[in-house]
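Entry for the shared binder. Reason: the reviewer on the internal report wants the predicted structure included alongside the sequence.
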Amino acid sequence: QVQLVESGGGLVQTGGSLRLSCTASGRTFSRDAMGWFRQAPGKEREFVAAMSWSGGRSRYADSVKGRFTISRDNTKSTVYLQMANLKPEDTAVYYCAADPSVATMAISGLSEYWGQGTLVTVSS
């Protein structure tokens, strides 16, 4: 059974930082792109960031560029999202995703595998 399990969400003040983690199990994702999406209350799920299997290619949503950094450790089957200078509009459930293609996630907003999500709340 394929599982993507997120952790690291929580409550943080505006301007603060958080690091999300997502660990994959059930299959090897070292050849897949991995990424993050988010869904704010009352809004559609949106792409946040993705990284290729080698780590050599990454893409970010314009709204998080310069503030969020995606990274991965294939030896641990884990992808991270370091979030800095958080804003109230970053409040959302953050979902980990895995797919063969960075472009599929970044452009189409689709992914083959999804985690259950972790809530990030940024207070003003």
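Summary line for the report: The longest strand covers residues 18-25.
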